[in-house]
Write a structure and sequence with these properties.
The chain is mostly beta strands. It is 0% helix and 43% strand. It has strands at 11-17, 23-28, 35-39, 47-51, 59-64, 70-77, 80-86, 116-119, 123-127, 135-139, 147-150, 159-166, 172-178. The strands form 4 sheets. A 4-stranded antiparallel beta sheet has the order 1-2-3-4, with no helix packed on it. It has a 4-stranded antiparallel beta sheet with strand order 8-9-10-11, with no helix packed on it. A 3-stranded antiparallel beta sheet has the order 5-6-7, with no helix packed on it. Strand 5 (59-64) and strand 6 (70-77) form a beta hairpin. The protein is globular, with a radius of gyration of 15 Å.
Length: 181
């Protein structure tokens, strides 16, 4: 399908399906290139829900805890990992009151839409890179508070965690490497 009124400059990198009719679609990029759309009719029509207004932000991926509660993550802006959340099915997207401190240059990788994974009960993990250390950020309260764990994966410019996956709340994997090679 196609999103009406969208030209080929948008790079759609992540999709989240709620059911056969409802899905969210995210484009990645600098500034207004980062957008979130929603369909409720199986892709026949799409409503623009969010357009990034910060030139420094670059949204990489998104995931949802359920049909109403979701989270999107951007590369760092102003020393913090930029987060965006919704509690009403995407009708409104807002930055939480707090966000994790970032390492210099830190961000996610928008290649697969899997740098963020959410699980029921408010748990989520974000894989980070492009910084001195490759880290996994973790929340247990729908993104209100975050803890960071340094991983043994390679880190540096265009190097780090590209994907995270969790089988349950305690068992997961972080994958990555050099995406610039």
């Amino acid at each position: 399908g196609r999103v009406p009124g969208v030209d080929s400059t948008l790079q759609f990198r992540d999709v989240y399906g709620v059911d056969a009719s409802t899905a969210y679609l995210m484009s990645a990029g600098n500034g207004a290139q980062s957008r979130i759309y929603k369909t409720t009719d199986g892709g026949r029509t799409w409503a623009l829900q969010f357009t990034n207004t910060e030139a420094e932000a670059f949204y990489d991926c998104m995931d949802f805890w359920d049909a109403r509660h979701g989270l999107a993550v951007s590369d760092a802006v102003g020393g913090h990992v930029r987060l965006l959340g919704t509690t009403d099915g995407g009708a409104h997207w807002a930055q939480p009151a707090t966000s994790p401190e970032a390492q210099p240059g830190e961000g996610g990788f928008a290649a697969s839409g899997t740098c963020l994974v959410a699980r029921p009960g408010g748990r989520a993990w974000i894989g980070m890179g492009n910084a001195p250390e490759a880290r996994v950020l973790r929340t247990t309260d729908y993104g209100m508070h975050w803890l960071a764990a340094v991983t043994p994966l390679p880190a540096g410019n265009a190097i780090g965690i590209t994907s995270v996956s969790f089988r349950d709340d305690r068992n997961g994997a972080a994958m990555g490497g050099n995406v610039g090679a």
